[in-house]
Write a sequence for this structure.
């Protein structure tokens, strides 16, 4: 039925545009397109003009002549002769305004014969200037290439490109293609069209409305009906491009990699000689992101005049036209460190380094492949050569192995269902013979009866069906991954205005808690995805919308799907698994599409004769006519739907919501919040498509500089606040702690930012990493100025151990070397000796990232970069004037922000490069009193870290220092040291041991303060020392950087304290109880952290104020003073208790079976420790007993045993804690809390004990 439409409707198309050659202005070379003037004139491009557009303007969508002209004919005018292909080409484009709103364009480019003699003569002249040799007409052997590029005015017919275009508020490419093709057919056909072309154009502009939500619409083209449909508000948003075509062009593997890059907001450059392919891939990838939306620069077709925009140091998704001749190697791109390059025509994708794998990648590809095969589409796409097919198959099998290793693969998969495909083919043949239409086959075929006729082409319906199948599978992945996301949204406590004012300082999502609930294989991807602008904007929308009426369309649809999943799968967030759940919503979505094309909801008015003057409307075959502007410039006044009460306001709102298909009227304040929240962190959203003057380009680059500085400020603040953890929370900054995955993600994003800063305004690009290239240039310039001295030996090599009698010398040893590394030659030495020697790092980008991580770990990033940029001549040589690195004020602020990283300790190099070989330097420092000048034994050390230990290393007796190289030990935890008890004077008083990592500069001090030797102290010949990381003073930093001193972070390492009986601290029972509680609390917290974030348990057991120290205080409280000249140790008391228990067992004085079991355990552990071959001394044995008791959950039993033991009465005074029954019971209860934890001890703590 033909219907009128209400005032709430709006037009299908806003403008009809004609672009082409302006014969009055003649041929103007298109200088901005960068064409080579050595080419034949037929292969050059010339400026095109907008010849006409109807109507002149509509208030809700002002006509942007520059943008439309550029995008209708992005490469300008093209000339051809009769020997060339003159097939019309269709392409679509998009104009994204700075506020994020979009307008779509659909253009058909065809060739018309040039009738202007002046233009033909000009082309002939240009050809003779390019090729002065005369063309010999008689010569038959003109090569095909010459013929292709030549023009002779007397022999050849000259054609020029022309374009007709529709500008629409929504994307209906299939319908617009039909309209434009039928209009072109009307002028190329020998028969005139049924009505003047003005009637059809008037109809599409003024009489065809947009279909309402959830409805289909039919209207008339020149030769046939055109059908379009629009999804309802509970379906996925409108999308009318062909996803199947994208998969055919790239293959499913490449599509998923590209999709991952887009989700992580990397720079994406599409490359093709077909404009429509660029648009199809860009629109398809962004549509598959539902419910998220691309927030950055989006130019699917980059006009030739905007090529400088590839220099943009921001995330972007752009399409670059190729001429089909240059290969990838000839394409000079400003930055590639974080670039995803997609060569669409050659089925090739080049990925950034360290790209995480999309969760459940193989099962996901398998599910989509089943969908594709059911439509007869190969998941591998259009692979041209057998080589690439073999490579593709090999790539998939490698991925499968990787997926199994990462836990991504639940079960072995059959690659693609070929047998099912044959079944599908037979089934289709069968149903054709029986007179029914097969619409789709997934599992059970969905068949329509023959009398239910669809109102559109079968191919078009198949495209819509394939689209919705693939989109539903993609949407289902996000629904499954974020089913519990609402639980983790942090609702603001203040009003909306305050929230918005402080938005960039607020956290809107509890990322750490969300990630802790996710399966392990998801974390590399999710941790990076949660940091993106698209995710932040999605959560902002959620915060700003309280009820369904306020929600954006995408958010409302997504939330309804999440609700369904949560009703079907009743589960708690903590029970997340990586089990793959297939999509179950396809059938319902497909049915909605089919019903709309079987029964058309609305039919627009038919085209009709207009009130045109006599003689108007004539046309000449092969030429698109000059249309009558008087009839096309204004629409009808009688149509009800064309009347608008407030069109500008309504359309402005609709434009902001159209890509979400949201037609509810929302209040302006909420719109402002969402839009401005999206703009946070992206100073420039979109380049303005206009003919750019130098001043406009300069202004754009200034916006980039400001944007980079703002991003740097936000990133450093976020990283610092996250790293400072509890202190930050107390200051009101946000989340409690940062996970290792999250920290790694933040540092990787900082590396990406530095690459973008170093890529901005480059004169000539060399290598994929601009930062690494600059470092190498700096190294080269320094080497030219001064010859680099030989490799630095380990510091202090020529210093005898007597120099270490003053403890201050240790600090000189530790820190002067670090400050030497910031001298002029340090970066060269630093790069050459360390980063370049790491064989595991193969690429320039990897080396640059390793350099950044190492500089951060050494707390020298800001200083090194300041030094790098101090070479002003080099910077001028490498960078253009507008580059960020040549804006002095911004550069200083940037370095100041990076300086804040010195306030915290990062181990971002040590924790990432775990397999590299690292040189360590160890110095044993004897006590200044009785230092050991007569010491005759041979000392040894064994260094242990979180990743590995060295084994026993002999230390030269005369120097007491050693340098060795071994695989990365990680953060150092303990040093075992001792001697072989040889010679006349085998007694040694050791102050401490200092160990330095020669690459990172981290220096650990392991305090001792005890004797090693028989008959002295506790008779120990070896001790286990627990280390602390030494932090340098900030004096030099202050002088060099002129910034206020930063407060140092508390050291993570704890110091091991042993207390001899002569220096017992006088702690009261309350203090002792508090100490035990704190020690136990530290262990409990340790086990409540994610496994990868726990650090070393040894520090909590044996470090300063650890469990061993706390129990030492318990046993020393009220201990009876020993007789003169005799030290009595806790171990002596324990040995006497053991003797008593063993004799009690023999006398069978056993109160009960439990008591007997506990006694046996206690005596067995005591015997095992006493029988060890290690000479660890009495305090060392006590430490070992406490550690083993904690491991086997026996400490509380032993305390109960010892409290009741008669030996306690003999050796302790009445005030002793061990004699106070209530205090002992309290201690037992506290120790029982360790029972729920599986304590694993470091090998160095229990070496030699076989229990």
């Amino acid at each position: 039925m033909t219907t009128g439409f209400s005032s709430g409707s709006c037009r299908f198309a806003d403008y009809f545009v004609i672009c082409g050659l302006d014969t009055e202005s003649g041929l103007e070379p298109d200088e901005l397109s960068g064409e080579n003037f050595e080419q034949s004139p037929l292969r050059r491009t010339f400026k095109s003009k907008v010849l006409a557009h109807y109507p002149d303007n509509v208030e809700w969508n002002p006509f942007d002549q520059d943008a439309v002209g550029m995008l209708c004919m992005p490469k300008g005018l093209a000339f051809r002769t009769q020997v060339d292909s003159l097939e019309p080409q269709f392409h679509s484009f998009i104009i994204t305004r700075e506020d994020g709103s979009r307008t779509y364009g659909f253009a058909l480019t065809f060739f018309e014969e040039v009738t202007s003699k002046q233009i033909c003569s000009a082309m002939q002249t240009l050809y003779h200037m390019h090729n002065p040799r005369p063309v010999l007409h008689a010569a038959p052997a003109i090569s095909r290439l010459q013929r292709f590029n030549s023009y002779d005015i007397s022999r050849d017919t000259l054609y020029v490109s022309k374009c007709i275009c529709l500008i629409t508020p929504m994307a209906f490419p299939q319908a617009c293609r039909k309209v434009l093709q039928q209009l072109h057919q009307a002028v190329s056909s020998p028969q005139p069209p049924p009505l003047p072309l003005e009637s059809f154009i008037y109809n599409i502009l003024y009489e065809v409305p947009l279909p309402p939500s959830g409805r289909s619409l039919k209207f008339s083209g020149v030769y046939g009906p055109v059908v379009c449909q629009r999804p309802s508000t509970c379906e996925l948003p409108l999308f009318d491009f062909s996803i199947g075509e994208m998969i055919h062009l790239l293959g499913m593997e490449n599509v998923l990699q590209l999709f991952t890059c887009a989700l992580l907001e990397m720079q994406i450059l599409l490359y093709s000689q077909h404009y429509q392919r660029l648009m199809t891939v860009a629109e398809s990838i962004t549509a598959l992101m539902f419910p998220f939306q691309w927030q950055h620069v989006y130019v699917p077709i980059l006009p030739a005049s905007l090529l400088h925009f590839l220099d943009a140091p921001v995330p972007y998704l752009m399409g670059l036209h190729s001429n089909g001749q240059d290969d990838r190697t000839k394409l000079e791109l400003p930055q590639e460190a974080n670039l995803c390059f997609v060569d669409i025509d050659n089925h090739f994708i080049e990925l950034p380094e360290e790209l995480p794998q999309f969760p459940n990648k193989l099962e996901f590809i398998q599910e989509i492949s089943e969908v594709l095969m059911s439509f007869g589409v190969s998941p591998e796409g259009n692979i041209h050569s057998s080589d690439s097919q073999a490579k593709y198959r090999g790539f998939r099998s490698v991925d499968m192995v990787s997926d199994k290793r990462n836990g991504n693969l639940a079960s072995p998969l059959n690659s693609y269902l070929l047998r099912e495909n044959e079944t599908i083919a037979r089934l289709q043949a069968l149903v054709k013979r029986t007179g029914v239409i097969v619409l789709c086959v997934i599992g059970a075929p969905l068949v329509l009866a023959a009398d239910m006729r669809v109102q559109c082409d079968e191919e078009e319906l198949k495209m819509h069906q394939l689209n919705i199948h693939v989109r539903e599978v993609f949407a289902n992945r996000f629904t499954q991954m974020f089913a519990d996301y609402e639980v983790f949204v942090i609702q603001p406590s203040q009003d909306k205005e305050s929230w918005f004012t402080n938005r960039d300082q607020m956290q809107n999502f509890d990322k750490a808690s969300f990630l802790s609930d996710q399966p392990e294989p998801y974390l590399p991807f999710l941790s990076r995805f949660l940091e993106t602008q698209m995710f932040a904007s999605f959560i902002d929308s959620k915060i700003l919308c309280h009820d369904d009426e306020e929600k954006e369309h995408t958010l409302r649809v997504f939330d309804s799907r999440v609700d369904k999943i949560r009703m079907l799968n009743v589960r708690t967030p903590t029970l997340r698994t990586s089990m793959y759940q297939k999509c179950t919503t396809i059938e319902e979505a497909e049915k909605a599409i089919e019903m709309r094309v079987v029964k058309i909801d609305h039919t627009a008015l038919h085209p009709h004769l207009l009130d045109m003057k006599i003689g108007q409307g004539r046309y000449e075959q092969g030429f698109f006519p000059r249309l009558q502007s008087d009839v096309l410039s204004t629409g009808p006044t009688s149509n009800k739907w064309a009347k608008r009460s407030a069109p500008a306001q309504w359309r402005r709102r609709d434009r902001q919501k159209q890509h979400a298909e949201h037609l509810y009227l929302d209040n302006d304040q909420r719109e402002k919040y969402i839009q401005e929240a999206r703009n946070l962190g992206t100073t420039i959203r979109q380049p303005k498509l206009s003919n750019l003057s130098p001043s406009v380009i300069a202004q754009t680059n200034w916006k980039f500089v400001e944007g980079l500085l703002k991003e740097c400020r936000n990133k450093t603040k976020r990283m610092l606040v996250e790293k400072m953890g509890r202190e930050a929370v107390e200051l009101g900054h946000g989340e409690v702690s940062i996970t290792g995955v999250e920290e790694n993600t933040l540092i990787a994003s900082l590396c990406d930012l530095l690459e973008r800063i170093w890529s901005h305004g480059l004169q000539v690009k060399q290598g994929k990493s601009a930062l690494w290239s600059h470092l190498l240039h700096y190294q080269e310039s320094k080497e030219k100025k001064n010859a680099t001295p030989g490799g630095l030996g380990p510091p202090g090599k020529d210093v005898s151990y007597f120099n270490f009698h003053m403890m201050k010398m240790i600090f000189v040893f530790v820190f002067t070397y670090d400050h030497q590394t910031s001298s002029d030659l340090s970066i060269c030495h630093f790069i050459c000796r360390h980063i370049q020697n790491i064989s595991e790092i193969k690429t320039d980008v990897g080396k640059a990232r390793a350099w950044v991580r190492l500089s951060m770990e050494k707390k020298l990033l800001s200083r090194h970069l300041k030094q790098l940029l101090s070479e002003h001549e080099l910077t001028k040589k490498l960078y253009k004037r507008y580059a960020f690195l040549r804006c002095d004020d911004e550069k200083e602020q940037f370095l100041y922000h990076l300086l804040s990283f010195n306030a915290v300790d990062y181990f971002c190099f040590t924790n990432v490069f775990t397999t590299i070989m690292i040189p360590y330097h160890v110095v044993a420092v004897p006590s200044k009193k009785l230092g050991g000048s007569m010491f005759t034994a041979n000392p040894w050390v064994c260094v242990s870290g979180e990743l590995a230990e060295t084994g026993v290393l002999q230390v030269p007796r005369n120097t007491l220092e050693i340098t060795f190289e071994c695989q990365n030990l990680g953060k150092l935890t303990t040093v075992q040291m001792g001697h072989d008890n040889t010679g006349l004077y085998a007694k040694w008083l050791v102050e401490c041991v200092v160990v330095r990592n020669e690459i990172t500069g981290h220096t650990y001090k392991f305090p001792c303060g005890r004797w090693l030797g028989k008959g002295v102290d506790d008779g120990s010949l070896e001790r286990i020392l627990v280390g602390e990381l030494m932090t340098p003073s900030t004096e030099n930093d202050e002088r060099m950087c002129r910034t206020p001193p930063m407060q140092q972070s508390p050291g993570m390492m704890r110091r091991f304290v042993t207390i001899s009986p002569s220096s017992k601290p006088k702690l009261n029972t309350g203090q002792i109880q508090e100490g035990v509680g704190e020690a136990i609390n530290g262990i409990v917290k340790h086990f409540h952290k994610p496994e990868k974030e726990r650090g070393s348990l040894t520090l909590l057991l044996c470090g300063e104020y650890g469990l061993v120290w706390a129990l030492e205080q318990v046993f020393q409280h009220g201990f009876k003073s020993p007789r003169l000249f005799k030290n009595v140790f806790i171990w002596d008391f324990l040995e006497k208790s053991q003797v008593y228990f063993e004799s009690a067992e023999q006398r069978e004085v056993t109160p009960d079976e439990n008591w007997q079991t506990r006694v046996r355990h206690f005596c067995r552990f005591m015997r095992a420790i006493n029988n060890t071959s290690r000479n660890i001394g009495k305090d060392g044995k006590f430490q070992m007993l406490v550690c083993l008791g904690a491991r086997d959950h026996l400490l509380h039993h032993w305390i109960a045993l010892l409290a009741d033991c008669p030996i306690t009465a003999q050796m302790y005074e009445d005030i002793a804690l061990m004699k106070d029954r209530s205090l002992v019971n309290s201690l037992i209860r506290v120790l029982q809390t360790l029972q729920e934890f599986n304590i694993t001890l470091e090998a160095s703590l229990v070496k030699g004990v076989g229990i």
About this structure: DSSP finds 42 helices and 25 strands in the chain. The longest helix spans residues 694-724. Residues 765 and 838 are 25 Å apart (CA to CA).
